[in-house]
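Weekly sync notes, structure subgroup
Attendees: PM, AL, DS (notes)

Item 1: joint prediction request from the bench team. They want all two components modeled as one assembly rather than separately. Inputs as received:
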Amino acid sequence: MISEFIIGVGILVLLGLFFAVVIAVAYKKLRVYEDPRIDQVEEMLPHANCGACGQPGCRAFAEKVVGNELLPSKCTVSAPDAIARIAEYLGVDAGSEEKRIARVLCAGGKNEAHNLADYRGTLRTCRGESVVNGGPKACNWGCLGLGDCEAACDFDALHMNEDGLPVVIPDLCVACGDCVEACPKGLIELMPESQKLIVQCKSRLEGDLALSKCSVACTACGRCVADGAPGLIEIVNNLAVVNYELNNLASAEATRRCPTDAIIWLEGAQFKEKQVGTLPLGKVERTHFEEDLENRYWQ
Amino acid sequence: MSSNLFGSLPTFPHGVHPDEYKELACHRRIERMPFVEVYTLPLSQHLGAPSKPVVKEGQKVRRGELIAEPGGFVSVGLHSPVDGVVHAIDLFDHPNGQVLPAIQIRTDRFSTQQLTIQPGTPPEEMTTPEFIKAVQWSGMVGMGGAAFPAHVKFSIPEGKTCKYLMINGCECEPFLTCDHRVMVEYARDLVDGTRILAHFLKPEKVYIAIESNKPDAISILKEKTAEMDFPMEVIALEVKYPQGAEKMMISAILGTEVPSGKLPLDVGVLVSNVGTAVAMSQYFRQGLPLVERVVTVSGTAVKRPSNLLVPIGTPMRDVVDYCGGITVPSPRILLGGPMMGMVQKNLDVPVVKGTSGILALTEREVRDLDTYSCIRCGRCLDACPLFLNPARMGLLARKGLWEELEENNIMDCFECASCSFVCPSGIPLVQSFRVGKAMIRERKSKK
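Output from the run, pasted for the record:
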């Protein structure tokens, strides 16, 4: 009776020892060396897996950084001191990457660009509207204003304002490019922060025809071309296009005479969170007298 | 031929039965639309490369004169629909919602619009390459709605043969009656155009497929084909949507399935619309290039539903006004049929070669359904003529899982909208498939 018990335990112990040896040998022989620094660097990265660096995720980026293929500053999500820490830990140059921000190339919100029809379908997203006759807006190129970009932003850096335009908060934007992909009209571009002269229009129409669709459209009048530094701006396909290779020549001078404010000199965020100053078409601002009268009437 | 066990008509498996509404316009004779002031002819009315203008602003053109040449092999010529002057070559609104280059022609008010061109060589004396070139330069496209250049379809690649030629007169979309009227009123041209096609494609047999709700067209075509020296069979098919889709028609008539991602020619079949066959005859016998087409103007919001012979490029507003205008304040305007047609936001766009119908529907017919959750009833699976899984595809499309969507064969879907039609939860299935397909194509083009 006891001997059977001992045999059973003995077999299990032997089996255990055998597999322990197999595992020990396999651990030595089949081991793949992995730099322990990769784990450390990954720990220091923000774990956003956003893809702004062009890599499939933070782990892949950490491998590239440790392998000296990329500089730590390629990670635009990390704060500068986190980058410095990684560089210090690896003993490499942090590198310098200019901050890029998502810029919206359309300023035609609800108050500026009118709709030809109401979208009444059930798929209320920009993508859904854009496959139905190009969306209800009169302008073929304009922002549809339903916030596909807002839904795509993982960093809470993009909000739709009352006018139906996306407001990018420069401090929060990490240039991951998700909104660029989300926009069916291709209106969002990642631009370096130093590019301050921006044409907020994509319409290829000219003059009054462009104005008939949107009050802030580029009418291709060419005043910015004349006012800007030579060669800085040119009109291509009825649209002012800034040559950013000459960005150091750019100044706010080019935007002074723009009749529609389609070209702007940008400091900070693009649009206001709250719309001020513009009234819906057809409504006149009330005078003090009228307001006074109304107040008295109700009292 | 598929099952005929109970004496039923041949058809394909699955599909739906929407209300027909064809009685609104099916007995109206085709009228010629009067000429209007301005015609806008977009340079890309067909699939493929846009045409290249060969006229200048201010130039005088005659009716039927070439104004733009093909811009590549998958491209066709464009002809002036009227005697007039080229007013502008610029960007104009296109019925697909975009703003695209077009030629605008102002009509010469004092012209009689008499056609002065003569037919070229009779097709019987042409070689096949000559025939293909003639079809390309005549501006011929598939008149069913997709506007695929006809000559590309007719040029059969090496190693493939056209065993059966099918002329598609199904017209399964509700409301549309233009093909029906064409078959009744242009029966002789239709049979003659089919004979010309058969001469070059050399099929063993020609089928003319018509849904059985058009008995007058079936009887008149049976009569006309009996006189021909070529074996042509007029087949009545069951009334079911989407019977007029070419893959469904092949399945109904021959019982063979066109494999995924393949063309009908891979199973030895070539399908052509009745309008295309009529246009072939008119071009080769009378010399008339594709400058006009029959358009159904129908719907409950149109005062006088009609079938009109409209010159290509006529503004839709003029066409609708000619039909007595619209009776309700905010109609929904559709181009094409109600199942696959595109909602139109703008009536100031021209009729193009692919416009088969202009429908104006009232609030009652287009009311929006509330969307509920999928209850897994499986009706969409029973409706999908391609045996896809619309419920799953809809879920994937809403979640934005584009790779998985492609693995579920969304690219085979031809957006017939049968699934959306039967969905009791009002889920926007076909809409999300359109988004998904656009997204997949966009991602592919970026790579």
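Discussion: The interface with chain A takes residues 91, 96-99, 342-346, 366, 368-369, 371, 426-428, 431-432, 434-435, 438-439 of chain B (CB under 8 Å).
Action: AL to compare against the crosslinking data before next sync.
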